[in-house]
Amino acid sequence: MLAAPLLGVLPGPGGIFVFAGGLVLALRNSPWARKRFARLCKRYPKLGHYSDMALRRPSSRRRRARAQEAAVAASGNADRMR
Questions:
Q1: Is 5 in contact with 15 (CB distance < 8 Å)?
Q2: Per-residue pLDDT of the chain (82 residues; tens, 9 = 90+)
Q3: Distance between CA atoms of residues 42 and 63, nearest Å
Q4: Over the chain, what HEC string results?
Q5: Distance CA 50, CA 41 (A)
Q6: How much is the pTM?
Q7: CA–CA separation, 82 and 73 (whole Å)
Q8: CA 58, CA 41: separation in Å to the nearest integer?
Q9: CA distance 49 to 71
């Protein structure tokens, strides 16, 4: 993550990939960074969704499956009420 500003000066998108790689390493190895990131994801859920997909976290798949089950259950309840 520290090298990203240096690569950002060069033409091309290199700094973005270096920053993303550094962020992944920090989130995997630092409990402090994980807590801060979890707080950020609670505040901005859309950011959490994209980061979970990018990090290929199992929690992302669980949340998506839970949301689909809830949507199916809600549509089933709506049909019964008609």
A1: yes
A2: 666 666 666 566 666 777 777 888 888 888 998 899 889 888 887 777 777 777 677 777 787 888 889 888 888 765 555 5
A3: 13
A4: CCCHHHHHCCCCCHHHHHHHHHHHHHHHHCHHHHHHHHHHHHHCHHHHHHHHHHHCCHHHHHHHHHHHHHHHHHHHHHHHHC
A5: 10
A6: 0.50
A7: 15
A8: 16
A9: 17
C-alpha span between 21 and 37 (Å, rounded): 15
Rg value, the chain, Cα: 18
Q: How many Å apart are CA 75 and CA 80, to the nearest integer?
A: 9
Both structure tokens of 33: 């960074």
Tokens of 40: 């950020």
